[in-house]
Automatic annotation (TrEMBL):
Gene3D superfamilies: Glycogen Phosphorylase B. Residues 304-418 form the Erythromycin biosynthesis protein CIII-like C-terminal domain. This is Glycosyltransferase. InterPro entries: EryCIII-like_C, Glycosyltransferase_28, UDP_glucos_trans. It comes from Kineococcus glutinatus.
Length: 435
């Protein structure tokens, strides 16, 4: 039995997959602790792990970042960089202090960190112990074959494309200078050489990267590190839970079911829920709308009669009945839909969501609306097209088969146990794209 510490950023989209990792490790007989904000304490304990709270790290609620980080809240690329600086990087020193205190109480054998957990990466470097990072979204591993991570652009083709990507990498380096400064200051604050690790390297374990997803969704690249492993995805929970009141009867109607979700972060219902409900209210479909905010079971506008609304819904019960998912592009929800072979309509606004939308479109499994605030007519036309053209369902079904080829829990535990045993980078065999 090993003692494992898991470090997660306190956002639902980050915590849920890390808790699946915790459950898998606990089921395999390992002792697990999870360092995350107090909002998730009960969920940590339900996963069979011990909660290690954020204390020196500023505890916050993802639904109101500005209460703790007044600099945040702006949209656009600069707003994303500001969020990364203050929420993800500058909290790193506090995370390290919390984790060092936990280490002094009981050292761990292995640390598993959310791919954006600055504290997890820094404390592992400081202690000199191996660690694994979990990619809870599209891969952010930089590549000479691709534009900078996070941009919703197709891979470069030919000399002009390569010149484009070189220019974009230079522009990103200039735009992210405050982020790089913040990282250097954070590293110095916890006793590490400020420039020893670059921004691009900081969140990527040199020992093992568990990429939640499949290679078929990612752009092929020639320089993917050998310790990056695609492991599929954990099944969505809730298969044995009840649907919200009134939902079971509504979903039994003999017509397509369209699930509409604003995700769990950036949950303004005016962005996607309102135009989607306006568009679908006059169609012969059942709309299953989720607000993404616990306690918000109603919308600030009247839903159409063919819609049901709830704060959250057990995906294990909903997705097997769903024909199309309309989403803001959160990675967890997109992967869950594709795991079930469901085509998508994606309205990605910021963070990695435009990239996710572009990935879905390139795969053939859905439509990228190219905005986070689509007009109702665009949502309606996209849903009509996805329902009418079988190619979208065929592409989604093909991706579902690739997900089904993975036993994610067993693969994750097996790879982590290899790292525990060998204390060296865990190399994969072969190329993920079969070249």
């Amino acid at each position: 039995m090993a003692d494992v510490m898991i470090a997660a950023m306190p956002f639902t989209g980050h915590v849920v997959p890390l808790l699946h990792v915790a459950e898998a490790l606990a089921a395999a007989g390992h002792r697990v602790r999870v360092h995350v904000g107090s909002h998730f304490a009960d969920r940590v304990r339900a996963a069979g792990a011990e909660h290690v709270p954020w204390q020196r790290a500023p505890d916050f609620d993802e639904r109101d970042l500005r209460a703790v980080f007044p600099q945040t809240g702006r949209g656009g690329p600069l707003g994303v960089l500001t969020n990364l600086e203050h929420v993800f990087v500058r909290t790193g020193a506090g995370q390290v202090h919390d984790l060092l205190a936990a280490w002094q109480r009981r050292p761990w054998d292995l640390l598993v960190a959310d791919g954006f957990s600055t504290g997890g990466a820094l404390v592992s470097e400081r202690l000199g112990v191996p660690w694994a990072s979990v990619s809870t979204g599209p891969l952010t591993v930089p590549s000479r074959d691709l534009p900078p991570p996070g941009l919703p652009l197709a891979p470069a083709r030919g000399p002009l494309g390569r010149a484009r990507d070189t220019a974009l990498r230079g522009a990103f380096a200039a735009l992210s200078r405050p982020l790089r400064t913040a990282l250097r200051e954070t590293r110095a604050a916890v006793g590490l050489e400020p420039g020893a690790v670059t921004l691009e390297q900081q969140w990527i374990s040199p020992h093992l990267v568990l990429a939640l997803g499949i290679a078929e969704l990612e752009a092929p690249r020639s320089d993917l590190p050998a310790h990056v492993h695609f492991v599929g995805s954990f099944p969505p929970g809730g298969a044995d839970e009840d649907l919200p009141p009134g939902w079971a009867r509504a979903l039994e109607a003999p017509r397509p079911v369209v699930h509409v979700t604003q995700g769990t972060f950036g949950t303004d219902p005016q962005q996607l829920l309102r135009p989607a409900l306006e568009a679908l209210g006059g169609r012969d479909v059942t709309v299953a709308a989720v607000t993404g905010v616990i306690g918000r079971d109603a919308l600030p506008f009247d839903p159409p009669p063919n819609a049901v609304v709830a704060a959250r819904v057990p995906y294990g019960r909903l997705l097997p009945r769903t024909d199309v998912v309309v989403t803001n592009g959160g990675w967890g929800g997109v992967v869950a839909a594709l795991r079930h072979g469901i085509p998508l309509v994606v309205a990605g606004a910021d963070l990695d969501k435009p990239l996710v939308a572009a990935m879905v479109a390139r795969s053939g499994a859905g439509i990228d609306l190219r905005t986070g605030r689509p007009p109702a007519r665009a949502v309606g036309a996209a849903v009509d097209r996805v329902l009418a053209e079988p190619s979208y369902r065929r592409a989604a079904t093909g991706l579902a088969a690739r997900f089904a080829a993975h036993d994610t829990a067993a693969e994750v535990v097996g790879l982590l146990e290899r790292l525990l045993r060998d204390r060296a980078p865990v190399r994969r065999a072969g190329d993920p794209w079969g070249r």
